[in-house]
User: Fold this.
Amino acid sequence: MAINELRSVSTFIKAAELGSLRKAAQALDFSPQAASKALAQLEKHLAVRLFHRTTRVMSLTDAGQRLFEDVQPALLGVQRALKKATTTTDDFAGPLRITGPRTTFQAMLWPVIEEFCARYPDIQPDVLLEDRVDNWVQDRVDVGFRLGPSPHEGVIARRLFPLQMVMCGAPSYFERHGMPQSLAELSNHRCSVFRHPATGKLLPWHVQLEGQLAQQPVVPTLISNDEILELHAVVSGAVLGQLAGPTAAPYIRSGQLIPILLDHMPDIASYFVYYGSRQSQPARVRAFVDLAVQRLANCPQYTLTRKELARAQSQWLVSKRMANRPATT
Assistant:
């Protein structure tokens, strides 16, 4: 329905309800002249007279009465639908579609979802974790997380924190095999390599070399497409690994893993949260994005400072030297 027809029908219905074109114009926030013109257009379009008019009273003709009875329910339905469409942006109930990478991010995402649902219990999270990048628009995603800005046009991205890739091993590994002192020595060590779940390709170790990001070849002793399995293998002392900072951080802080080759540790990318247009966002989406940024942006829990890394390495080296000192009599 063209907007002039909707305006004309609305004027007709309101005039019939109030028995006055002037009152209909006031109720619809039209000028009396605009209301009179709209009604005249409708009568001309239908080629029927809809009202009997006197200087004081207007009443429906038979044709007008039939039109009123047929159109009023439909117009009320349209008005309710339009009102519902405008109020859904403030709705804190219903589904919230979230997507993100399976590797690394699971442990970070759940606390945010848990806190959000505690605040808004009528929200229904619909979470899809995939390491491949799907069609954001086609899948009707409300909020997404990924490494690097979204490639989808029209999507807004906000940076959360950098992704560190930490080369590390367990104390038990270094007790048996020693600690590599250079990148070249990695070829003599047992290393784990990650197979990308989406592409099936083996991911090289990434290192910082003369200020540039470079690939470091290693001979894999273990290959896995599951980060948790790889983590267990490294913590057990079976292999060395290059683990994502959020995964490695708690184990390094507890002394279960020791970082190595710190001068070559890279920051290869950053995590971003992405979402659609700010103007058309439902309130629940805006609130979830704000909470995610509040909890995750530059969160020290998921990144290790250079000082922390150096201290973790030096503490283990000192403890090893102390353990190897000959006993004094």
